[in-house]
């Protein structure tokens, strides 16, 4: 059987038979791939621990008729270890894995931008360090990842003009009214505010823009209450635009959530 190598992040696994697993990986070159890891659940397996969610591995796979077969797995980074040891980081990471799984639905199609974004986000979570820092860092990284991943997939929220009429919105800090509507696709003006919209302050507008562009100085400079408010907006936007929403979003700590953007 023809074989190929690729760098990959493990997204999820499923048991198969008595000792095997089906693993879904997101690869740098080949996009999303499902493969069989034979004997991986046996204690004598050479690479069982390397094929868990969040693992960053160099894989060799043999092409199969229905599913490819993992023939070798070399660990590149042990990102799973710090994430599984911290609840805040683990839940944020799980949401990321499910998000990319939904945003890249077709197997075998390259999605390099999505891969690089996911790898960078998971690496940042894994390098957070002290447990007391995770409660603040995890929402920052997750919110930025969610907006940027959706932007790559073509679902970028409109944050510099009204999503309905296209009229430019005031710059953050100017006295005017700006609203956020997941259904409309981002920020809207007062005239196009609809049920389900929420008022956006200047600080919240600035943070939303920073999260979408990856401006880390803006992200880290925002106050905790602003992050909580924006987290609710990002969560609602993501759940609205992804089919059936994200199951893992339900596991996020209640303390992450700000006011609910679904309420007017």
Brief account:
The chain contains seven helices and eight strands. With 264 residues, the protein is an alpha+beta fold.
Helical amount: 25-40%
Strand content bin: 15-25%
CATH architecture of the largest domain: Up-down Bundle
The total of beta strands comes to 8
* Poorly predicted runs: 257-264
CATH class of the largest domain, anyone?
Answer: Mainly Alpha
Give the overall shape: elongated
Q: What gyration radius follows from the Cα positions, in whole Å?
A: 20 Å
Tally of discrete structural domains? 2
CATH topology (level 3) name of the largest domain: de novo design (two linked rop proteins)
H/E element order: EEEEEHHHHEEEHHH
Distance between the termini: 58 Å
Q: Helix/strand/pairing class, anyone? A: alpha+beta
**Main beta sheet strand tally, sense and closure:** 5 strands, mixed, barrel
Strand order within the widest beta sheet: 1-2-3-5-4
Count, helices: 7
Mean pLDDT: 88
